[in-house]
Each structure stands twice: as C-alpha cells, then as structure tokens.
Automatic annotation (TrEMBL):
It comes from Psychromonas ingrahamii (strain DSM 17664 / CCUG 51855 / 37). NCBIfam families: MMSDH. It is an enzyme of class 1 (oxidoreductase). It holds the Pfam family Aldedh. This is methylmalonate-semialdehyde dehydrogenase (CoA acylating). Residues 15-480 form the Aldehyde dehydrogenase domain. The keyword Zinc-finger does not apply.
Length: 502
C-alpha cells in the first residue's frame, strides 16, 4: 500500500508516525493509499525548515520570486491532465470539474506573478515641508494553510501563491481524505526553482494542526473547512498571537423572483446545486421561491432535468458524467441520514437519491440528485449544511420575506437573486447579509484578482482570501517617515514638544 508522506525542506520526508488514515477512490469504494498522520516532532521539523528558509527568501527581489510563479504556472498547465485525474480519483469529482478547480487555483498563481506591482506600498512626497512618507509591505515569516477535502488544488492555491510571492515561507496541512495533490504541488514548485524549505507539506490531523497553531515561529494561519473547526482554528491561532483567516461552512440561498427567466434560472440552479455532488462551499443548496406559481414551475423544470442527469465515475471513456460520487462512505451515510430526517420532518421529497446504484461501481459512494419542496426553516435539512447533492425549495409570499429568511440564516457565504428587474437586484445586493452575491449568476465566486470570503458564521477574521485582501493578509505594513536635514542650509533645528502638525 502506497503511503502519502510529508514534503519538508525540498524533499519527501518519511514519517515515523505509527498513525495512518486510509485514502479511497470514491468511485470504486476501494482503498488506494494511506496517508501518514504526522506527530508533533515531524510538524515542528517542517516549521523549522520554513523558518530557516525565510530570511533569504524574504530578501529575494519580488521580481525573482514572481519568476518562480511564472515557471510554476507553466508546469501546472503542462501537467494539467495528470493532475486532474489524480483529483478525480481521490475526490470523486468529474474530470472537467477537476480541470476547472486547478484552473481557478492557477489564476491565483497568475495574480501572484504580478507581486512586484502588488507589493509596492505607497509613497507620499512632502507630507510636511521636506518630509516624505513611504510604506513597506513586508512578509510575516512562516505562514500555514489548513485545507478541506473538497478543493484539494484550488483552496491551497488560494493561499500559498500569494504567501510565497510576498516573501513568506509556508507549511500546508492538506485534508487527509485527498492528500496526494499537495505533494504534486510541492514537487512542481521545486521544479519551478523554489528554494528548499519555502514550501512544505505536513500530512495529519488535529495533532499536527495544533502544533501549527501554537508554535511561536508561525506568524499566520489560513484555514478553510467546516464552521466548528474554523472557529476553533481562529480562537486558538488568535490566542497564540497569530494573524488568522478562517473560512467556514455555508448554506447558500438563491431568491427566485416571479419575473425571473425561469428556464435560465433552472439550468443555473441545476449546475450550482448538483455540480461536484454538492460538495462545494458555494453550492446552491436552498431555493427561496417567491410565490407558489414560481415554486411550482421551478420544481417541474428541475424534476425534468434531474431525470436526464448522468451520475457515475469522474473518469470515463465515453461522454462525461454530470456528477460523481461523494467523498467517503461516512459522508454518504450522513447525507442519506439528512434525507431521511427531511422526509420525517414533513418536507415533500420529490426526488430521492438514497438508493442509486451505478452499474459496475456498486461499491462507490454515489448519492443521486435529491430534491425537496415545501421545506420549512425549522427543519434540519434547511438549517444545516448537508454538503451533498440535496436541494431544498422554500416557498415565500414576497421579496421581503425571502430576504429576511436569507438574512436570518446562520451562514452568509454566497447568495444569488434571479430576476429581470434591476431595482430588485440592486436592492438585494445592498441589503443581503452575505459575502458574495450573484445577480442571475448562481455561483458568484470572485476571480483571483478580487477577494473571496463570506459573512456571519461562514468566516472568522477580517481579511478574505486572494486578491488585495490576500496581499494584505500575508504582509505587514511599515510606514517610514523621513527628513534629510540640510543642516548647512537651515539656520536652526529647535526641539519641538508638541504633536507635529503640517
Ligand atoms: P473539515 O473542517 O472537516 O476539515 C478541514 C481541515 O481541518 C482538514 O485539513 C482537517 O484535517 C482539519 N481538521 C479537521 N478536524 C480538526 C480538528 N478537530 N482540529 C484541527 N484540525 C481539524 O472540513 P472538510 O470536511 O474537509 O471540508 C468541508 C467543509 O469545508 C464544508 O463545511 C465546506 O463548506 C467548507 N468549505 C468552506 C469554504 C469556504 O470558502 N468558506 C471552501 C471550501 C470548503
């Protein structure tokens, strides 16, 4: 059985931990690898490597750091097919979706290629007579990233390209469910010319994470995962004096107005609810239909489309499937339990995905697309993040009730409105309590040159990931105010004891 190891100081580092976690191919249900669960000493070794590499890397001109990013981007492109297959085989998502996630990560690498410009700081001449001010955006030191299973490529790439390009060193702790991609990243970064120790990978669970959050040499922690863990990461890292951004779970609603183009909306909702088997933090899992007629028409269109969906393995010889399996047997069981609970709590189960089997893949972790109507706000399928292919429809009488429903939910990651009315769209984007808003766009994930992050209990910490917030997160500002005395020309430099005003 292949063991997924660590990558420390430029090479694979064999762990002596006796703890392992199995890694499966979700489409077959077979174990393909095991991943090491690192102990404290191994995690500290990675931090030591990153700490030792920091001074030289931080001093390297940004232009040279950017050139490593350019080479890394080219390598990602050359290796795209192999990498996408690796993701599909460990995560389960279909091949083209795996290509899509690598591409979204690659766009952050492209953004990081512009670091000489992004890290310039500010300059003001003559803030007072003969006095100039400029700011330096300096790297922090060792930064760490703790990432979820659902985007083994994109989420780490939300973090480390900017961290590294700004002159920090990095330790990545990937999800133990699909850990292999992280080692590919490490190998490609080395091939791109990244000095040893600048990027390290430690595989593990809470034991490794706790070392990363408490070691005094670590300056900043980025986390993406579920809300209870995000909250734990934020409070622990903050209590140990670290800068922290922790992105949590979601329950993304769309508000479907009666004037929407319903065909367009139904198509958009299908992809956003069932793509990647609903295992996306920006998956659309709740439709708030305004008016019964809107609700009736929508569920009719969705039911027709669900019948046409192809569910099966992520990699096939013929036409691609629309949706693959979910990540583990435990996760499949959890999703099915939610469906049972929804049924018991009185929601109308229009399409039930619990009993789907895929020919030739009977042991795979497949759950079919599931649709509930007449869902009420106190049901667990409404309140909680299911993270599977389960879409719930809630009916409301008007815009205001729909908006209030969305705003009262615990999570506020993304949201969308479907309408033809500009005024409703404008009002919605102003009043809704969510970090990312789509107008006739079901999954409004910001591009790499904007920043990604939710509101409410979908995020802990003030700065979002990538874009200008990413650069801010991984740098600290130092403002220099300078005067060059022209002692030969000025008559006197008397001491002043009052607050200087210009
Ligand atoms: P998870 O919280 O179980 O795990 C995330 C990471 O935390 C993993 O690396 C895991 O090893 C580690 N971890 C787990 N338990 C821990 C503990 N007790 N102490 C320390 N570390 C621990 O999340 P997941 O199941 O891998 O991913 C799915 C979740 O991630 C969903 O809730 C989804 O919404 C969320 N997510 C959010 C975003 C976002 O941008 N807001 C993006 C992707 C995923």
């Amino acid at each position: 059985m292949e063991t997924v190891q660590n990558f420390i100081n430029g090479q694979i580092s064999e762990s002596n931990s006796q703890r392992f976690s199995p890694v499966f191919n979700p489409a077959t249900g077979k174990q393909t690898r095991q991943v090491v669960l690192s102990n404290e000493a191994e995690t500290e070794k990675a931090i030591t490597a990153a700490d030792s590499a920091f001074p030289a890397w931080a001093k390297m001109p940004p232009l040279k750091r950017a050139r490593v990013m350019f080479a890394f981007k080219a390598l990602l492109e050359t290796n795209m097919d192999r990498l996408a297959r690796l993701i599909s085989n460990e995560h389960g998502k279909v091949y083209s979706d795996a290509v899509g996630e690598i591409t979204r990560g690659l766009e952050v690498v492209e953004y990081a290629c512009g670091i000489p410009h992004l890290q310039k700081g500010e300059h003001s001449a003559n803030v007072g007579t003969g006095v100039d001010s400029h700011s330096l955006m300096q790297p922090l030191g060792v930064c760490v990233g703790i990432t979820p299973f659902n985007f083994p490529a994109m989420v780490p790439m939300w973090m480390f390209p900017i961290a590294i390009a700004t002159g920090n060193t990095f330790v990545l702790k990937p999800s133990e469910k699909d850990p292999s991609f992280a080692l590919e990243l490490a190998a490609l970064l080395k091939q791109a010319g990244l000095p040893d120790g600048v990027f390290n990978v430690v595989n593990g669970d809470k034991q490794a994470v706790d070392v990363l959050l408490t070691d005094p040499r670590v300056q900043a922690a980025s986390f993406v995962g579920s809300t209870p863990i995000a909250e734990y990461i934020y409070s622990t890292a903050s209590a140990h004096g670290k800068r922290c951004q922790a992105l949590g779970g979601a329950k993304n609603h769309c508000l479907l107005m009666p004037d929407a183009d319903l065909d367009m909306a139904a198509n958009a909702i299908m992809g956003a609810a069932y793509g990647a088997a609903g295992e996306r933090c920006m998956a659309l899992s709740v439709v708030v239909a305004v008016g019964d007629e809107t609700g009736d028409q929508l569920v009719e269109k969705l039911q027709a489309q669900i019948k046409e969906m192809r569910v099966g393995p992520g990699i096939v010889d013929g036409p691609e499937n629309d949706m693959g399996p979910v990540v583990t047997a435990q996760h499949k069981a959890k999703i099915c339990d939610y469906i049972t609970a929804g049924e018991q709590q009185g929601a109308s189960l229009l399409v039930d995905g619990r009993h789907l089997t895929v020919d030739g893949h009977e042991a795979g972790y497949f759950v079919g697309p599931t649709l509930f109507d007449n869902v009420l706000p106190d049901m667990s399928i409404y309140k909680e993040e299911i993270f599977g292919p389960v879409l719930v429809v809630v009916r409301v009488p008007n815009y205001q009730t729909g908006l209030e429903l969305i705003n009262n939910h615990e999570f506020g990651n993304g949201t969308a409105i479907f309408t033809r009315d500009g005024e409703s769209a404008r009002q919605f984007s102003e009043d809704v309590l969510a970090g990312m808003v789509g107008i006739n766009v079901p999954i409004p994930v910001p591009m790499a040159f904007h920043s990604f992050g939710g509101w409410k209990r979908s995020v802990f910490g003030p700065l979002n990931v990538h874009g200008s917030d990413g650069v801010r997160f991984y740098t600290r500002m130092k403002t220099v105010t300078s005067r060059w005395p022209a002692s030969v020309r000025l008559e006197e430099h008397a001491s002043s004891f009052v607050m200087p005003t210009m």
